[in-house]
Structure formats: C-alpha cells, structure tokens
Amino acid sequence: MRTWDAGTGRAFTLGLTQAGAAPAWSFAVGGARVTGGLPETGDWAYVLGQYDAGTGTARLYVNGRAVGEETAAVPVAGEGDFQIGRARGAQGYRDRWQGEIGDVRAYDRIVVPDELTALATRAAQRTGHWALDTAPDGLAPESDGGAPLKLGAGASVFRLDEDPCDPFDPDCFQDWPLEGDGHLRLDGVSGHAATDAPVVDTSGSFTVSARVRLTDDAPAAPMTAISQGGEHGDAFKVRFDLENSSWDLVLAHADEPGAPETVLRRIEWPDGDSGVGHRVTLTYDASANQVSFYVDGGKEAEGGTADFDAAWKSTGGLQLGRGRTPDGWGEHLKGVVDSVYAYAGVLSETQIQQLP
Questions:
Q1: DSSP state, 258?
Q2: Half-sphere CA count of 282, side-chain side, radius 13 A
Q3: Torsion angle of alpha carbons 62, 228, 251, 203, nearest 10°?
Q4: Residue 187: left if φ>0, alpha if ψ -120 to 50, beta else—which one?
Q5: What separation in angstroms does the CA of 71 have from each of 52, 186, 277, 318?
Q6: How many CB atoms within 10 Å of residue 131?
Q7: pLDDT tens digit string along 164-195?
Q8: Residue 288 near residue 298 (C-beta atoms within 8 A)
Q9: What is the pLDDT of residues 251-287, one digit of tens each?
Q10: I need a labelling partner for 170 at 20 to 30 A (CA). Which of 65, 99, 156, 255 fits?
Q11: Which of 69, 44, 46, 74 is nearest to 59 (CA)?
C-alpha cells in the first residue's frame, strides 16, 4: 500500500482492494478507482498507478501490462506525507500492508512505455552453465562451481585430438565441438547426463537453453534433448519429433501419467551429424502465464508463444538426452549437446540471440 496524505483523507492510494469475492490490484485518485489483475500469494508483482493530467485519466499497470479500464479522475491536493504500508483515514491510519514492498519510485510526470517495460522487468539470474568441455570422473562441471551433470552409460565428452587434421583437407573427417573445446555425445540408447536436483523452479519464471545436433538424417523415434520434471512427467522438455520433422517444446500440465500437454512446434530438417546444430531455448513468464520457444534465437510469429497457466514445481534434476514416457525414462537422444544455460527469470529476445 502506498498513499499520499490529503488532510484526513488520501490524495491517491495504490495497493489492493476487495473486488467481489477476491482481491485485486487498485489505484485510486480522488474519488476514481481503477482495479484489475489477480495478486498471487508469494509472487512479486510490479504495480504502477498513473494519473495523466493531460487527459484527466488514471491508469493501472501490473507487471508492465495495463489492467482495468482507463478512468476519468479529478485529483485532490496531497499536502501530507508520502506513506508506505498504510493509508490515512478519518480515524487515523488504516489498511496496513501485510507483505513485502521494494523498489518504490515516484515521478512528477507520466512514465512512457519503454520505461514501464524496463521497470517491470526483473533481470534474469543465471542458475547454471555447463560448457560440457570436460567430465572428470564422469562429472561435467558447472562453470561457477554449482551442481555438475553426472554422465550415465552411453554418454561421453568428445574433445579434439591433440593434432587434428586440417579442416580444409578434403580427406579430413575430423569432428569439431559445437562450442568451446568439447561437447557431450549421446548414443540414443541409454546415454544421458543429469543433475541430482532441479536447476530452475518450473513454477516460477525461468529460461533454459542448449545447443543440439542430431546424429541421424532420419531418426527412428522422438528424441528428447533437455528436460526437467517429476516422477511421472516433465514440467518441460525439448524433443525432436520425426513425424513432423520438428523441434517441439512440450509442457505437461501436471506430474501425472497421461496429463494434458501444451506443445509449441518449430519445423526443422534433421542435422545428419553435420553443422553447428541448433540452439533451442524456452522461457516461461509466470507473471504473464506465457511460454515461448526459440530456435537459433528466433521464434515463430504465430505459435512461438502460448498461454500456459498449468505450471508446477518439478522435483527432478535437469536431464540431457532423455525424458519421461509412460514406460519410464525414454526418448533417448542420438546426437550431441553443448553449452547448456539455465536462468531464474526470463531472458529478453536480444539476450537469447546473444547466447553462443
């Protein structure tokens, strides 16, 4: 709750109000009030109330998006103190806030759209980066000393020989790492690598990205490159679907056998074990309940983003090269994976395009 005192009343208030049977975000100026947006316990929200003297209207924004209806308002003088966490009434202060408040700002002008977007965006924090250049004792280290990826049977790290052949030699058939000094090879039978615990909270905003190349020109079955889930299903997985010749982002709606799924699809030809592969990236924006899928830094204009309000908190570790199926672990990848990133929060499209 934020207010500005006006005598024994309030020039404006920004906080929560009861809207029917549920609370809603609220911005009141004089006798006018704008309400909208659904607050969620435990989640941070960026709330901005704005009065435009040029148009004589009040607007309310939650997480950078306009909510409620633009409303005509007549302001009253606010000569008292600026209050955080309480509002002034005829009998004293009331409507005390229960919760946390941070990053409070006040402007003597309207906030333009670009500013609003920047203010409402929380910077993503990296929770993991696995270069997959080495795996001493079967453990591929995390770059900042975090949880390693443990290589299973059928998985190995490829590195260049000390004296590789000349890439311009027509007889040179030397493989080359997708990124850095090495990459992870998976045999498509049992090969995988995994962390012991989740690397992102899949019930909140997150970003996960990896570079992947398939070995076959015509895979015989769907193959999962990266996933994280629970006992029965995957909160997310990115797999190649041979039937549609596409990279698919698949999100189960619950950790239950046969749970409904949301699928975003990007048509691509199989790599055939040549080239630099594809960088596949997924983002989930919990504030907007939207998921997006990028391949090589871009997403489809239609079908690249979808509404998704069935996110759940996964309990299993990050998986490379396999996903959950009705029969347990399956969809093993025959190919290579490199340069895996995980973030708490949503990377911007520009940041995604800058990933190696």
A1: T
A2: 28
A3: -30
A4: alpha
A5: 10, 59, 52, 47
A6: 19
A7: 777 677 777 667 889 999 999 999 999 999 99
A8: no
A9: 999 999 999 999 999 999 888 888 899 999 999 998 8
A10: 156
A11: 69
